[in-house]
Structure formats: C-alpha cells, structure tokens
Amino acid sequence: MDRKKELKEQYRMMKPDMGIFMIKSNFKNKCYIETAQNLRGKINSTEFKLNFGNHPSRELQRDWNEYGKDSFTIEILEKLEYDKDETKTDYSEELEILEMEWKEKLSKEGMEFYSK
Fold first, then answer.
1. 78 with 98: CB under 8 angstroms?
2. d(Cα 26, Cα 11) in Å, to the nearest integer?
3. Does residue 3 form part of some domain?
4. Residue 73 domain-assigned?
5. CA distance 13 to 93
6. Domain limits at 53?
C-alpha cells in the first residue's frame, strides 16, 4: 500500500473524542454546555464563533463580548466511549442522555445555564 492510501486509512480509522463540554463564566454561576461527536472540533468551532460575535446563544455572546475570553473557562465534562460494535456511527441518543444527566447534576449544584 502506498503512503497516501495508508494515511487515508489511518484517518478513516481515527475516532475523535466525543462527549460533553462546558463554557463556564468565571464571574457568574452560569454555564453553556454542549455535546459533540468530535469534542476538540466542536470546542474550536464554538470558540471561533464567540471570538467573531457569531454564536447562536445571544446571552453567552453578549457576556463574552463584554467580559472577554479570559472571564470564561472551557472544560470537557465527560467523554463518551465508543461502542464495541464498530459499525455504530450515530451516538446522538447517548449524547442527548449525557447532556440531560449533566444539566440535572449542575442544576442541583445551583448552576444556571445560558440558552442555546
């Protein structure tokens, strides 16, 4: 197999981390949580949108603009493991359940949420 085909196959076999992440305000008891099948890509995309004033959560965007990036902490809350069944590609239901669990857990701790 030539090098190009080998690299393509390696890329196809890669499985990015999936799970849930949080953008937490350091000045309010408030956060924005989101799930993703590619955590790193989604975090980068979300941060890019916030930096350019294009995030769908107007409330989060307003605070980001007013207080700046350094007033927020971005952290991965939990990673979701891939199923043993290699043919499974849709994890949307598992991610939805994960989001509900984290919202419940954070709500019990008194955390408020930015709207999506």
1. yes
2. 37
3. no
4. yes
5. 22
6. 17-113
Residue 108 within any structural domain of the chain: yes
- Structural tokens at position 88: 């499974």
Closest CA to 55 of 103, 12, 115, 105: 115
**Overall domain count for the chain:** 1
Judge whether 44 lies within some domain: yes
Mean pLDDT of 62-79: 97
Q: Yes or no: say if 69 and 62 are a contact pair by the CB < 8 Å rule.
A: no
* pLDDT score of 4: 81
Question: What is the maximum alpha-carbon separation in the chain?
Answer: 56
pTM score of the predicted model:
0.85
Closest CA to 22 of 108, 97, 99: 99
* Pairwise CA distance, residues 81 & 110, whole Å: 28
